[in-house]
Design goal:
The protein is an alpha/beta fold. Helix content is about 40%, strand content about 20%. The strands form 2 sheets. It has a 5-stranded parallel β-sheet. β8 and β9 form a beta hairpin. α6 crosses α7 and α9 packs antiparallel against α10. The structure holds S-adenosylmethionine.
């Protein structure tokens, strides 16, 4: 893709790539990757293999979370100079739990056209197949790795009425489900979309208690890449949590936090972990 002439900036194309099945690379994505002057890639080896699968090579520039701030301006300078470039990540749509935000912001601030070439994303693929309400949802990305921060984050989300979508890795799927169960309650409907578009694709649905039991019982269900989708709090859950937090705040003035939370949970019917650390 050549520049229109001196002084005409090139375009930055944000290109989605497959999340597993290589046949999901769209014809337009392929054409864009073939014709840009260079491709900014999260992992150049990974992207080189993708291009090799389709039988071509392009110059690659490494752009990952550790160097993005530093090289974004250099990439923008190339764009201003007339080069057209693509940004890809290792899988799915760049900027969705992947690098690229700083580059896109810098390019737009410099007046460079940024054009998406949409395609796969694990978030949307999961949401489309799990059968939970999808008209309004909140994408939470990865939960914090540290257990205390993860639990706090889940407690904050306990009363959220929109469907919640989380990314999770095989190292933490068991712990994450246990923490979700504690924060949202055993009965909250949820689903786990694993290895989407790949050989061992599985979509499990059920209550959080059922899902945790299935994942605990079957080692294979802890392998691969996961999207966890949790139905939002119903009006009933929301009201119970609000009442539980009110009771907890009152009891916490006179009792140790763990006793206050236990009693508030019993009185309100809300999950104990949804109350802890709230209002006191
Ligand atoms: N940008 C990507 C997207 O648009 O989906 C996501 C990148 S993020 C670093 C990687 C996470 O996405 C994985 O840990 C997993 O939670 C989810 N993911 C990616 N591919 C997946 C797949 N084939 N099946 C299920 N989840 C997947």
């Amino acid at each position: 893709m050549t520049a229109d002439g001196p002084g005409t900036p090139g375009t930055l194309f944000i290109v989605a790539t497959p999340i597993g099945n290589l046949a999901d690379l769209s014809p337009r994505a392929l054409e864009t990757l073939r014709t840009v002057d260079a491709i900014c890639a999260e992992d150049t080896r990974h992207t080189r293999q993708l291009l090799a699968h389709f039988g071509f090579e392009r110059p690659l520039l490494a752009l990952h979370e550790h160097n993005e701030g530093e090289i974004a301006e250099r990439i923008v300078a190339r764009l201003l100079n007339g080069d057209s470039l693509a940004l890809v990540s290792d899988a799915g749509t760049p900027l969705v739990s992947d690098p690229g935000f700083r580059l896109v912001r810098a390019a737009r601030a410099a007046g460079v056209k940024v054009s998406p070439v949409p395609g796969p994303s694990a978030l949307i693929a999961a949401l489309s197949a799990v059968g939970l309400p999808s008209d309004r949802f909140a994408f939470e990305g990865f939960l914090p790795a540290k257990a205390s921060a993860r639990r706090e984050q889940l407690q904050r989300l306990a009363g959220e009425p929109r469907t919640l979508v989380f990314y999770e890795s095989s190292h933490r799927i068991g712990e994450a489900l246990a923490d979700m169960r504690a924060a949202f309650g055993d009965e909250r409907p949820a689903a786990i979309a694993r290895e989407l578009t790949k050989l061992f694709e599985t979509v499990l649905d059920g209550t959080l208690a059922q899902l945790q039991a299935r994942v605990e019982a079957d080692e294979n269900q802890r392998k691969g890449e996961f999207v966890v989708v949790v139905q939002g709090a119903g009006e009933d859950d929301g009201a119970k949590i609000a009442e539980g937090r009110r009771v907890y705040a009152l009891l916490n003035e006179h009792l140790p936090p763990s006793t206050a939370a236990k009693l508030a949970a019993e009185i309100s019917g809300a999950p104990r972990k949804a109350l802890y650390g709230q209002g006191g």
